[in-house]
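Working notes for the structural subgroup meeting. M.R. asked for a predicted model of this chain before we commit to crystallization trials. I am recording the input and output together here so anyone reviewing the notebook later can reproduce the run.

Input as submitted:
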Amino acid sequence: MTQSFQLDIVTPTQSFTFEDVIHVECPGSEGYFGVLKNHTNSIIDLKEGVISVKTSDNTVRFNCSSGIADINSDPSDDLPDKVLLLVENVEQLQE
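Returned structure, recorded in token form:
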């Protein structure tokens, strides 16, 4: 059983897809929150800040505007877990 999930970061003009995310940290309206596989299904308001995406290979960071996080998890593992971040603007930060 894999411990990773799919993440899509989508704006009106571009998108980023990650297939093997181990952890993502997002700027929520009430503070930063993290998501792992099998997270509770949620819809969470995002505020302006930094999204940190940890994959099996590396960590990628993005500066983002406000938006919405849609977290979908299937505890039976019949369907893959997926996190969708809908934001107005996103810019990948250079490490």
